[in-house]
Amino acid sequence: MLQLFIPLGFLGIVYRQIKYALADMDLVFKLLERRPEIQDAPDTKALRLRDGEIRFEHVDFHYQHERAILQDVDFRIAPGQTLAVVGHSGAGKSTLARLLFRFYDVTAGRILIDGQDLREVTQESLRAAIGIVPQDTVLFNDTIYYNLAYGRPEATRAEVERCAEMAHIRTFIESLPDGWDTMVGERGLKLSGGEKQRVAIARAILKQPRILVFDEATSSLDSHTEQAIQQTLAEVAENHTTLVIAHRLSTVVDADLILVLEQGRIREQGTHRALLEAGGHYAAMWDLQQREGPDAPVPVAATDTR
Ligand code: ATP
């Protein structure tokens, strides 16, 4: 009997690994939509991560030749600081995150992490350094435990629980009748937008990355949940270099630096206070959102010259 159990146990491990691998590909394809051919050069080395400083140096980028998406984008995120990017839909905000993850290569300029050009380090080491909280969290048809542990499958139960606690979702999970074994996803319990974001935050911090990217969900949450999520993000961001792709200005108030992106160019930059005092585009956007609520459309530039 024992002899039968050993191979079955082994098969169980293999099954689990295949499942993780498939889940991973599923998520990657979802994130990429269409995967471009970015290859490591033969002599690339692993990223030597130190403090997690990010630099975009005069970055130009286009997906298709005839249409520039980013032009001369130049900024630095100091280690441990938070940079938020705002701007109208299509301004190029999420593209910055895709370039940082090296889903695409820049057309001109360069992106550096701790002084190393992304094109000169292995993609595996780069992606291990960055945790992403995406706009739409993919939930697998599996237990809530599996869905969280997915951030780092080899993590211990205690680590998973601690990250759930940091993301303020542990109490919710443990209040469910089946607790951590609750099935979620299309065929299980449907999580609310806020709960899904917390799962994504827990996954991202479980990965223990030096750098965090929050691509804020475009769909609005009720204001109580939104504030609670923002509080969680602020706590989690404290020990990481953080890039926030923001769709609501309320998210960015405490950022160390805010970039206002318009038609792929940095139009203004500064802290919330400095940008309000400057009385420019950001101040106008802020006024509008104060008057009409967080879902007020961000004013779009008169003509799109791209
Ligand atoms: P939103 O606030 O709506 O999420 P965004 O500022 O994040 O917008 P991006 O997603 O960075 O904007 O897109 C910038 C521009 O690049 C858009 O005009 C978009 O249509 C275009 N774009 C995005 N992805 C691709 C792609 N894979 N191929 C071609 N064009 C793309």
From TrEMBL:
Segments passing through the bilayer: 1-15
GO BP term (any one): intracellular iron ion homeostasis
Residues of the whole record sequence present: 301 to 606 of 617
GO MF, any single term: ATP hydrolysis activity
GO cellular component terms, semicolon-separated: plasma membrane
Protein name: Xenobiotic-transporting ATPase
Record's keyword terms, sorted: ATP-binding, Hydrolase, Membrane, Nucleotide-binding, Transmembrane, Transmembrane helix, Transport
The keyword Oxidoreductase is assigned to this record: no
Subcellular localization(s) per the UniProt record: Cell membrane
Domain ABC transporter: 54-288
Lineage, broadest ranks: Bacteria, Pseudomonadati, Pseudomonadota, Gammaproteobacteria, Chromatiales
